[in-house]
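Sorry, explain these tokens?

***
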Amino acid sequence: MEKDLISREDRERLLLKVQRHLSDEAETELGRFEVETLVDLVARLIGPHYYNKGLRDAQALIARQVDQINDALYEMERLPEA
């Protein structure tokens, strides 16, 4: 995971949560280096999926807004007088 994407404090919290989860749920004790490696791997594997989904969602939102603007402009059109 690119360390610049999240703050140092948020990264620390994330690593501790993953470490605690593995300990509680999988009864697996991993050190800090192993947890960092695991989090980085997961981020590389699934991060692009969520990033791309976010882009598609933003693109759909913008398209809807452009449609609304086009509709409003169409309603403002004036017909020539007969």
